[in-house]
Amino acid sequence: MAWLVVQAPGHTLLVLDALRPQRVQQQLWDALEGTGLQMYLANPARGSIHSYGMALDVTILDPHGAELDMGTGFDDMTDVSHPAREEAFLASGQLHASHVANRRLLRGAMLAAGFSGITTEWWHFDCGDRERVRATFRRVL
Fold this sequence. Notes:
alpha+beta, 4-stranded antiparallel β-sheet, 33% helix, 13% strand
């Protein structure tokens, strides 16, 4: 993470979730059935990219080891967690400029390392094209 070292000296990444076996993905899917929140999970029938070891959920720690405030917690299943909606929530006051700046710092670090983000979770980053990963790699069961 040389990019992060230059942009924010003393800050480090904290991995919150990485490899998630298929059986755990299925348990999460089942637990959210009927809640309207399954949109935050990949359908286990198709396979989560986490189950291939090709996704990370991360945040940033400041030089004192405290998590940067991203405006929502990790795994927050509300629209406020969606990077695609940050500007609207900034305008409405539900997110502050510091929240968006922290999220941009995280995205910058991950993009510089070759990861790509998604539109619904500020903490989730993929390593590789999802369809290629599913077609090429073995899923951890």
